[in-house]
Amino acid sequence: MTYTRNTLAIDSFAALGDPTRRAIFERVAMKPASVGYLAKGLPVSRPAVSQHLRVLKEAGLVTESPEGARRIYRIDPRGIAAMRAWLDSHWAFALDAFKEFADKQDEEKSK
Question: What is the per-residue pLDDT for 87?
Answer without folding.
Answer: 87
